[in-house]
Amino acid sequence: MTTIAQLPPVISAGASDLLPLSQAGLLYSVSVSQLTANLQPMISVPSGDLLGRYSIGAGAPESVAAGTGLVLNAGTLAANGADHAGFPVLGAMSLSDEIVINAGSAPGLLPVTALRGLFSAGAGVAIDGNGVITVTAASLTGPAGPQGAGGPAGPAGPAGPAGPQGAGLGGPAAGNSASSIGASDYVALWQNGTLAWMPYGQFLGGQTIDQLPAAGPARDSDELLVAQGSNMLSVQSFGAIWNYVQSKLPVVQPGVVELTSNTVLDSTQHNNRILVASAAITLSANFANMGPGFSCTLINLAPEPVTMGAGITSGSGSITLPPGATTALLGLSYSGGSLVWWSGVVPNAPTLTIGSISAPAPNAAFIIAGGVFNDAPSALDYSIDGGSTWIAAPSPVITANAYSFTAAGLNPGTYAVRVRDHGNVAVVGVSNSFVVIAPSVTMVAPPATVAVGRLIALSGTVSPASNAVQVGLSVSATTAPAVWVSAVVSNGGWTANLTPAVAGIYYIWAEQQAAPAVNVVSGAISVVAASLAVSAASTGTAGSALAVTGTVSPAGDTVGVQLATQNTTAPTTGWAAATTASGSFSAALTPPAAGAYYVWAQDAASGLSAVSAAVTVAAGAAVTYGINNPGGSYVHGVSTIGLNGSVTPAQSVATQVALSTSNTVLPTAGWAAASIINSNSLWAVYYATPATAGNYYVWVETSTGGSPTVSTFTVTVT
């Protein structure tokens, strides 16, 4: 039997070579790669580094470099003291400090205090326990030495006599000017026949305006500083200013304030104003908020009187201001006290007023009511045509200061009602203007064709705005529906939904529930059963457009189409819109590769889908790719790189692009889909800039890996 030693030696061992292995009493073969799979790999450490581990936790050994102050030489790690250069420099030593020393070829620490042991006191010198050195002068006295240097100067002597007067500051040169001036600047003065200088900050004796003495009573001759048309100051008298103010007073107009609800007068909003009451309100006053001198004019343009309430004193005792009357209110303070006063004098002419009239429905009776002042009518007339003709008010209810009656309905139009005293026709009241609107209902045109069971959303307008609306389906444009659905009405608009259940021709009706004669009828609507069909040629070519046609009902529905490799389940995404016209649709789809395909169509509105017969797609012509150099350089990890190239022959072939640092090995990752543009003659893609700097080749191929092509240039990524 041949022993292992007798076997010929192997030239080289490979991972797939086999070795005999005994396992559980049986002999097996094992490959070299299996046998060494769990062995620790060869450790590689750079020259000059140590083997260790600096990462947290257990793990593989890591390379550790020798730091500052250590050196690895011939397998020996030694300290060279280079790290001492990084030690902080101390400005002084203290008794608690220690010094590193070499003691017998070994490092050691020496307290600073131990340094004293290196010194001993000589003659005339003493060193105490704290290290203080003192000298005994007597022990050191020797022969006299040479004279030392002079000492510091002594204190200054008394001032000498004054010298002659200097030239002083020179005057400003001709043409010199300053753009600004500060407190430390100097101003030239002529004083007592000589030129002098004064700091600007000392003008007015350094006083601020609040430090100046108080002026006496103002007079027309008093003056103020003013600037007129420039920043040059000049003076203006109070008398001239008053003349200016007087010239402006005639053009000052008081403000007008409308009062629509009960109001408490105050000076902020009502003083020197014209107050117009447009509703029957109550005025009151708080003198503390008005003060003496308050004044305003009150005009009552309401159909009823204005009442003077708390805080307002009447000269005549009357507390109401009739419609159309005006008065003044004044704030007064005198020896008898303070009050808000009005004369209380009101017109005694007989007056009729009319309360506000809201627009009634067309031809619907409505109530006219108003006030009676200084009059006692027994009968009333009213006019709806500006007083050209008068109608006797039917059964009016008349009291000492009010009346009411019911007027006949009005046709659509604009009106202002007049009411007069039948016995004194000069007493006439006029109402506000109002508009009677004709009742109407409109409807937005519904679709001409809808599918059976599909909801029809309806909307329109209604007038008067709050009137109820109902809608329904009828097979006739002249016969109303038998079944109605109430619409939702809001702010003059309405909405409703109807769902036809049977195919046929219908008309949609909308009418006011309270006035069926006010209605609108739509045009004829064709209700059809929903249907969808799609077809395509039985053969095609990869990369070439495949014509798709079909029919859809209702004709106006939108159709989506797409290619799939199966005909059992409709796709859920990826639909392309087809062109529809008169119930037909068409589209063009491009199969990316050879194989069997089916064309799917979907009508989203009806939920129907359809699929064509199988389409056999043959492989397209072999494609050749060209690659254009984008030029320039790009920063790693930032933005994208615009890449493109030619497609020959022109065809819509699914194409992908990748970058690689190799121009011989096809990339295994990083492929990005490219777009086929320019009549299928150009591929293009915005490729994400690689995260790592380097020089990259551009690779392009079909999505199935065909026709791989690599650029002859590289793209630089910094």
Quick summary:
The chain has 718 residues and is mainly beta. It has four helices and 61 strands.
Strand and helix map with partners:
Layout: E1 18-23, E2 26-31, H1 32-35, E3 49-52, E4 62-65, E5 70-73, E6 76-79, E7 98-103, E8 106-111, E9 125-127, E10 133-135, H2 137-140, E11 186-191, E12 194-199, E13 223-227, E14 233-237, H3 238-248, E15 255-259, E16 263-265, H4 267-270, E17 273-277, E18 282-285, E19 295-300, E20 306-308, E21 312-314, E22 320-321, E23 326-334, E24 337-342, E25 351-352, E26 366-373, E27 380-383, E28 391-392, E29 397-398, E30 402-407, E31 413-421, E32 424-436, E33 440-441, E34 449-451, E35 456-463, E36 469-474, E37 485-486, E38 488-490, E39 493-498, E40 504-512, E41 515-521, E42 525-528, E43 531-536, E44 539-541, E45 546-553, E46 559-564, E47 576-577, E48 579-581, E49 584-589, E50 595-603, E51 608-611, E52 615-618, E53 624-625, E54 633-634, E55 640-648, E56 655-660, E57 672-677, E58 682-688, E59 694-702, E60 709-710, E61 715-717
Parallel strand pairs: 15-17, 16-18, 17-19, 18-20, 21-24, 34-42, 44-52, 54-61
Antiparallel strand pairs: 1-2, 3-4, 5-6, 7-8, 9-10, 11-12, 13-14, 19-23, 20-22, 23-24, 25-26, 26-30, 27-28, 27-31, 29-30, 31-32, 33-35, 35-39, 36-37, 36-40, 38-39, 40-41, 40-42, 43-45, 45-49, 46-47, 46-50, 48-49, 50-51, 50-52, 53-55, 55-58, 56-57, 56-59, 57-58, 59-60, 59-61
